[in-house]
Write a structure and sequence with these properties.
2 domains, four-stranded mixed sheet, alpha+beta, 9 helices
């Protein structure tokens, strides 16, 4: 008989202890977590970054990853884009009664592989189990802590006219793939999430270029929404060119079928960068050395500092305002 998660796994009793010691520690063991205290205890020095997030994606397993690896990379990415090296992550599971234990093991293994791959430790966590039909398989809440080295803190740098807009690679893949998956559409192997750890190229980039003025991962709301956030944060007009935006053929085809502009589709391994024009080409050449940013491209620039606005120069030569995402084109994508 298949072993399932029971309500008593979240009770704080014997079964929960066995779950922690025999399942969680099997995959996530490290000196801090192994103490099994109510709080993780550690020492740090320097400027810290702290983030939190929740992951409710459906389906929980997908090409390119699953909810477990997504929770690690998503949390680590939020730290990396502010210049922080991720060190510690917390994981809290909300599990629906009846989830197969084998699925939980698969998720834990994925978390283990992802965290080891980027040298991050899961140091504390929690488990709650809700009744069947009162949840949806599994939700994961995280928090992450990282350290920012002085040369990596870009926040005081001034965004100004003629600064360039860079995207680190092909856009729109995660959101459009997840929608195709939910619709049950058969896809080729190349059609998958772009999920990955952006710190692999962002942190070395910050080490080498003082001309980096802004970095953000373009998740929910896509590149268009990030650009609008930049425009309003710095009170600048941004102009991007549709012909320059790197987009895979399958993303363009899926966007036509589904009626979703890739500029608004979520990414899980891409960032938007604002950089000094004088260093722009050197930055692109540097980014192309890394697998996740091999198709980094300059897609536009800051044109004035008079008002917050984003413009798109279309392929047919027209110019239109590119607004932030209105509403939610696809819930539960991360």
């Amino acid at each position: 008989m298949e072993k399932l998660v029971l309500l008593s796994y979240g009770s704080g009793g014997e079964l929960m202890r066995e779950l922690i010691e025999k399942d969680y520690l099997k995959y996530l063991s490290n000196p801090i977590l192994d103490e099994l205290l109510d709080s993780a205890v550690f020492e740090l020095s320097g400027k810290l970054a702290f983030t939190t997030d929740s992951y409710v994606i459906t389906p929980i397993f997908f090409k390119g990853g699953d909810i477990g690896s997504l929770s690690v990379y998503g949390t680590a990415n939020d730290l990396a884009v502010v210049g922080a090296k991720p060190l510690f992550i917390s994981l809290s599971f909300i599990i629906e009664e009846g989830l197969p234990i084998k699925d939980l093991h698969k998720i834990l293994e994925s978390i283990s592989n992802a965290s080891k791959g980027i040298n991050v430790n899961v140091v504390t966590g929690d488990t709650k189990v809700v009744e069947k039909n009162k949840g949806d398989k599994i939700f994961i809440n995280t928090a992450g802590i990282g350290v920012i080295e002085p040369n990596r803190d870009w926040r005081s740098r001034k965004v100004d006219v003629d600064d360039v807009v860079i995207v680190s690679g092909d856009i729109g893949e995660h959101g459009l793939y997840i929608m195709l998956e939910r619709l049950g559409m058969k896809t080729d192997e190349i059609v998958k999430s772009d999920m990955g750890y952006v710190g692999s190229f962002v942190l070395p980039l910050l080490d080498n270029f003082e001309g980096i003025k802004f970095v953000r991962d373009a998740t929910r709301g896509g590149v268009a929404t990030v650009l609008n956030e930049i425009a309003y944060k710095y009170n600048v007009e941004i102009e991007i060119e549709e012909d320059l935006i790197p987009t895979k053929d399958w993303v363009l085809q899926a966007s036509e079928i589904l009626g979703i502009d890739p500029l608004y589709s979520a990414n899980e391994g891409k960032v938007v960068i604002i950089a000094d024009k004088s260093q722009a080409q050197d930055i692109i050449n540097f980014l192309k050395k890394f697998e996740l940013s091999a198709n980094a491209t300059i897609i536009g620039k800051i044109i004035t500092n008079k008002k917050p606005r984003v413009y798109l120069l279309t392929k047919i030569g027209s110019r239109r305002i590119l607004e932030s995402l209105k509403g939610d084109i696809l819930p539960r994508i991360c």
